[in-house]
Amino acid sequence: MNTVVRAWLLAELGTDTNVTDLTTRYTRLGSARAVALEVLRERLAAMRAQPTSVTVTNVVAVNFTANLAAYERQIARLEAGDPPAPDEADQGGPGTLDLILLRERPRR
Length: 108
Fold this sequence. Notes:
Blueprint lengths: L2 H11 L5 H11 L2 H17 L4 E4 L3 E4 L1 H15 L29
Antiparallel strand pairs: 1-2
Helix pairs in contact: 1-3, 3-4
């Protein structure tokens, strides 16, 4: 895993993510997008295993449903290919040129 891929993963997953763990996963999975999706799915599963809200009457109320929705949106975005990972081949995103073939028409 090179520094560009590591920087992309840390930007997607947060700077407190263990780089050694990311390197091990990257070696096993072979792509940055697969690593990011695996880590995010693990985090989502861990959050789903916990209560989504905690309330102490007249003291505090905490609700984590927005965090669950944020993880689900981030996973969906990565599955859709946005943003492009640095180790993926360019698939016609912004900044690429498409080739249009022109064919001569017969004239009168």
